[in-house]
Amino acid sequence: MPHGGGMRKVRELLPDCRGCELWEDAEQVVPGEGPVRARMMLVGETPGDHEDKEGHVFVGPAGHLLDKALVEAGIDRSDVYLTNAVKHFRFERQGKRRIHKTPSAGQITACHPWLARELEIVKPELVVVMGSVAARSLLGTAFRVTKERGKRVELPGGRPAVATVHPSAVVRSDEFRRDFRRFVDDLRVAVDLLG
Ligand code: URA
């Protein structure tokens, strides 16, 4: 973990991280992306199959949904810093398929210093916390996204944040139209808070 240096240092050191065992099976580490001066940071869970192969955040189905929601909320993806609470793909094999598994509490904790460093470097005015893994990393185990979504909360230390569901939950939803709308509404709250 770098204690000094900027984002370039983070990107240089991340591939060598051995803080947990996820690096062993993943293709590669997937660093956060976006301007280091971004006013808004969005934090997801962990790279998925597509992200692990391509080495970029949110390029699979959840990323496509996120892209649509960002457009609807009036957010330009190139203006925000996008990252994950856990930087390696966690999966189990089912035949040839690699099925996403939620990172464990220990893996979330092990990866937290990287996210903390990204926050220190970018210093976003607002953080959008997407899903329970990002919430656990940034807001603690007692935080409930379903209860607290779509309103201003604060990260430890006081940085303003808005929690919402993870875009992959919307992708899988039986009530897609309703849940997409609610996701966009939460993002709009974040836009309004930024002013
Ligand atoms: N889900 C995430 O949380 N992050 C990604 O980069 C892709 C899917």
Portion in strands: 15-25%
**Strand runs, count:** 7
Strand order of the largest sheet: 2-1-5-7-6
Helix content bin: 40-55%
Give the overall silhouette.
globular
Low-pLDDT segments, ≥5 res: none
Query: What count of domains describes the coordinates?
Result: 1
Keywords: 4Fe-4S, DNA damage, DNA repair, Hydrolase, Iron, Iron-sulfur, Metal-binding
Family: Belongs to the uracil-DNA glycosylase (UDG) superfamily. Type 4 (UDGa) family.
Organism: Kribbella karoonensis
Pfam families: UDG
Structural summary, described in words:
- The protein has 195 residues and is of the alpha/beta class.
- It has one domain: Uracil-DNA Glycosylase, subunit E (3-Layer(aba) Sandwich).
- Helices cover 41% and strands 15% of the residues.
- It has eight helices and seven strands.
- A five-stranded mixed beta sheet has the order 2-1-5-7-6, sandwiched between helices. It has a two-stranded antiparallel sheet with strand order 3-4.
- Strand 3 and strand 4 form a beta hairpin.
- Helix 3 packs across helix 8 and helix 4 packs across helix 5.
- The longest helix has 19 residues.
- The termini are far apart.
- The relative contact order is 0.17.
- The model has no long low-confidence stretch (mean pLDDT 97).
- The chain binds uracil.
- Uracil binds next to helix 3.
